[in-house]
Amino acid sequence: MASFPTVQDLAAAEWDTVAEHWAGLGYYARARNLHKGAKQLVEVIDKTGEFPQTLAGWEAISGVGPSTAGAIMAMGLHHYGVICDGNVKRVLTRWAAIDGDITKSATTKDLWALAERLTPTENSGLFAQAMMDMGATLCTRSKPACLLCPLKEDCLAHAQGRETDYPVKAKKQPKPSKFSDALLIESADGDILWLQRPDNGIWGGLWSLPLQFVEKVDGKANNKATVKKTLASDDKPSNMPNDVRSNEKVYEAEFTTAEQIINEWLIKK
Ligand code: SF4
Hints:
Distance between the termini: 48 Å
Number of strands: 4
Bound molecules: iron/sulfur cluster
Shape: globular
Strand order of the largest sheet: 1-4
Helix content: 40-55%
Structural class: mainly alpha
Largest sheet: 2 strands, antiparallel
Number of domains: 2
CATH topology of the largest domain: Endonuclease Iii, domain 2
């Protein structure tokens, strides 16, 4: 807030300055969206003299999804707005014993319809705040405090004694693990080469030592033994240095142009 006190300050800042402030926080896509969204907002303000005043106007801003847009409408602008974020979904699926998988769009649609039906037209901001607080403090993920909950009389999950069976969520596929070497390339003067990462993917838009992709392993099999085994295999793409072997498609997808230039340079050496 001290560095970017207004949306105009954030919009006018260079990405590198924003990235420097965000470094270490993770979720770098959020920082990129925040910066892009600030630029979009300044355009709207320059044109209309004010922040967007409609749900559609807010949803058009990068990084603002339907629930955030609803929260801004209801709590920021004191207009009518509906929210249905993770906390609210948990309260609703328990209260109404909705047993559809919440990762499926049909269930999401039902939950939004229910949230819309329940949200009062007057003071929707207070309702939104109360629902979020309920989910964050009472109807928590693993230990819902049903005895203190104002909804306990008509909560179906509580009546069934199955509070933590909701929300129903399909098990996530284990994430792949990626292995890279970080190249420390130093000039005779002691300057070290840093490269800006592509906008997508890990550390998007940030500066990093050049990464030389080694291996991508599906699922949980991510120990070093797996990498060594793969390095010893015979499926090395022709354009990779001697000590790097991998699936060619992954190699192409993972390398930035600059990294590929360095790789070529390493091959020639
Ligand atoms: S009664 Fe329990 S499960 Fe139902 S909404 Fe309240 S805290 Fe959640």
